[in-house]
Amino acid sequence: MAQPLDKERTLYMLKRTNRLPALDRLPDAVRAALPVRLRFMLPDRKTVLEVPADDHLIVGRRTAEESPVQVDLSGHVHALHGVSRYHCAITTIHGNVMIQDLDSTNGTVLNDRMLNPLQRYVLRSGDLITLGKFTMQVMFVHKEDSLGDTSEISGDTEETTSNNSSSNLTAGV
């Protein structure tokens, strides 16, 4: 069984495994193709969490104000979902958006594929991410995209309730 990681060890592992060129050294065409925000559609198909697409994002449950979790699922999951405090990380490396399980207790699944802990996988717009038993869809938001819904802003995370009930929650190709 995987041991839960504390905040310091999680941040140390992220920094240690990211010895790659800085984002500002990427060609302009590659940098322009990267998303500016990530949009997570939750299972109810009405709730959307949107965050800036920073170099490092940690997805999990925020348990304290000083927590490094940028995608906080604590208000949307309960104990039966099995989402860890520091469940997975999303990073931008060499012009690719990557996801990696942070050795979480219940694992991370990307489009029906179980991720090996601490190994990076390419994340694409439309992919389904399952954290424990909690599945959500990630969409990339580019500069020309707009949310178009009524938003409630809380910190860096924007939570939106969509009025569009015909949202499609399927994995992208």
Q: Please, could you describe this protein's structure?
A:
The protein has helices at about 5-15, 30-35; strands at about 35-40, 45-50, 55-60, 70, 90-95, 95-100, 110, 115, 120, 130, 135-140, 150-155, 155-160. By secondary structure, it is mainly beta. The longest helix is centred in the first third of the chain and has 10 residues, at about 5-15. It is globular. The relative contact order is 0.21.
Furnish the topology, listing elements before pairings.
Layout: H1 7-16, H2 28-33, E1 37-41, E2 47-52, E3 56-60, E4 71-72, E5 88-93, E6 96-101, E7 108-110, E8 113-114, E9 120-122, E10 128-131, E11 134-141, E12 151-154, E13 157-161
Parallel strand pairs: 3-4
Antiparallel strand pairs: 1-2, 1-11, 2-13, 3-5, 5-6, 6-9, 7-8, 7-10, 10-11, 12-13
Can you summarize this structure?
The protein is mostly beta strands and 173 residues long.
Keywords, separated by commas or semicolons:
173 residues; mainly beta; Tumour Suppressor Smad4; five-stranded mixed sheet
How large a portion of the residues is in β-strands, by DSSP E? 25-35%
SSE order in H/E notation? HHEEEEEEEEEEEEE
Largest sheet: 8 strands, antiparallel
Under the CATH scheme, the architecture is: Sandwich
Question: What structural category do the secondary elements indicate?
Answer: mainly beta
Fill in the CATH topology. Answer: Tumour Suppressor Smad4
